[in-house]
Write a structure and sequence with these properties.
Layout (H helix, E strand, L loop, with lengths): L1 H7 L1 H6 L13 E2 L16 E2 L7 H19 L4 E5 L1 H18 L9 H10 L7 E5 L7 H7 L10 E6 L7 H11 L4 E5 L9 H12 L5
Parallel strand pairs: 3-4, 4-5, 5-6
Antiparallel strand pairs: 1-2
Length: 216
């Protein structure tokens, strides 16, 4: 839910307003799996990038197409920020864009729909960085094949923030996303739970990460 996440990341957004203009998007599917964070009455239905109880890869492809259209209409974008399942979706999207630009299509198998979608993603500039919070490695054979295939792990500068007391996405799952899906990831841990930490110390670390990115 774009508005919900925007509201909950106000300090983060304000701390980086001189460096970044953030665009928030709502995932295209209604969440049907268990939602550990109950929405407030005015939040509207919970959204998801995919539901594990249905046809997750089919829903992911729909989400990728939705994001490709968003990038076409509102981009270009320099980077991607993700939270929780959104971090996993960001990793899938970046891996597919990398495959499109390296013409690494061996993992497609007989999935003609995915092959066509990746052809479309070739028109999207590769992200220059990613900031992923409370994320996890998507436990899907298609993503595994993508990361372990010819295109390899995602070669994008990335910052990964995980919480030691995160009861929704255990910290080890976030570490796995950083270590297995990305090349030379920056991994940070905070003492809290399932949220984007944004006290003065963490705001400084985010600013340092952005400042250290290669000039392009």
């Amino acid at each position: 839910n774009a508005q919900k996440f925007r509201d909950r990341t106000g300090p983060f957004r304000r701390s980086l307003k001189r460096a970044l203009e953030l665009v928030y998007v709502t995932a295209p599917h209604q969440a049907t799996d268990f939602q550990p964070l109950e929405p407030a009455a005015d939040d509207g239905p919970s959204a998801a990038w995919w539901n594990r109880s249905g046809r997750p890869w089919a829903e992911i492809k729909q989400s990728v197409r939705f994001l490709r259209q968003t990038m076409h209409e509102q981009g270009p974008f320099d980077g991607i920020l993700g939270f929780s399942q959104g971090s996993g979706m960001a990793a899938i999207l970046m891996a597919l864009i990398q495959a499109a630009h390296t013409q690494s299509t061996a993992f497609f198998g007989n999935d003609a729909e995915l092959a066509a979608l990746v052809d479309e993603l070739a028109a999207c500039p590769p992200p220059k960085f990613a900031m992923l919070f409370a994320g996890f490695y998507p436990d899907l054979p298609q993503f595994d094949a993508l990361i372990k295939g010819p295109a390899g792990p995602i070669a994008v500068p990335s910052l990964h923030m995980v919480g030691e007391k995160d009861a929704i996405v255990p910290m080890e799952r976030g570490k796995l996303l950083a270590s297995q899906a990305f090349v030379d990831a920056t991994l940070l841990t905070h003492e809290g739970g399932h949220f984007v930490p944004c006290n003065a110390t963490w705001r400084k670390r985010y600013q340092e990460f952005i400042s250290a990115l290669p000039a392009q």
